[in-house]
Design a protein that fits this description.
Length: 251
């Protein structure tokens, strides 16, 4: 059945992700993608320190490729390593760093606030850090730290917000760390940009002195022509009046 194939593929991807997270913990593992191509299966690994993923002479990446082929039955796996451009905006890397600092004995509040400052300093719109477990004593508790704006539900939350999870085994018990980040490039549908009006100045056409003189000469010539036409009309009217007077005398 198609549903069974989806479940099987999802389980395999999850197991591969857990395997890579365990093997590449020191390299700053930030996630992976699997792309099926005609030549085989491309596994893209994102890491903060890609040199540790590749290893000396490519030893580590060859061992990972062989494990993906034998343990997870991938068809001709090819591993590509990419460096995470801004580790502070990768939720999985930051959750792992919080777990490491808690294991070194740092106070959870100090760890959470310092991590939030780093993430917001990298340009994130919002961040939420949740630490749960025996953080204050023998009883379990949950501490949540937030800053900025972050979506909790709806399509923008699933599309833009990235989430990372890590665990920190301590003597009192295991602490769970969840980091949720709203990246700077996220554009929410309810965002409205108000554009200030732009004043458009009407262009002022300045005529040159020569153009003004030419226009004045043309206007003067036209006025003279009109005056000459008026004089001719007056003469014709006088001639008509004389003819009418002569006709009256003849009668």
């Amino acid at each position: 059945m198609i549903e069974k194939d989806f479940v099987t593929e999802g389980l395999r991807r999850t197991r591969i992700d857990e395997y890579l997270e365990k093997e590449l913990e020191r390299a700053g593992y930030g996630g992976m993608e699997i792309q099926v191509t005609p030549l085989g299966t491309m596994v893209i690994v994102y890491a903060e320190r890609p040199g540790m993923v590749i290893g000396r002479g490519g030893k580590t990446v060859r061992a990972i490729t062989q494990s993906l082929k034998t343990k997870f039955d991938l068809d001709n796996p090819q591993v590509e390593v990419k460096e995470v451009a801004v580790p502070e905006l990768n939720a999985r890397i930051m959750a792992s760093k919080i777990a490491n600092m808690l294991q070194r004995g740092m106070h959870f509040r100090r760890v959470a606030y310092s991590t939030i400052r780093k993430i917001m300093g990298a340009g994130a719109q919002g961040v939420e850090v949740t630490i749960s477990g025996k953080i204050r004593g023998s009883r379990s508790a949950v501490a949540k730290f937030t800053e900025g704006y972050i979506k909790k539900c709806g399509e923008p939350a699933t599309r833009f917000v990235t989430e990372g999870f890590a665990t920190a085994p301590l003597k009192p018990g295991v602490l769970g760390i969840v980091v949720r980040i709203m990246p700077p490039e996220a554009t929410l549908p309810d965002k409205v940009d108000i554009i200030a009006p732009v004043e458009v100045e009407e262009p002022v056409v300045e005529a040159a002195e020569e153009d003004v003189e030419e226009i004045e000469e043309e206007v003067t010539e036209e006025i003279e022509e009109v005056e000459e036409d008026l004089e001719e009309l007056e003469e014709e009217l006088e001639d008509l009046e004389e003819l009418e007077a002569a006709e009256e005398d003849v009668e």
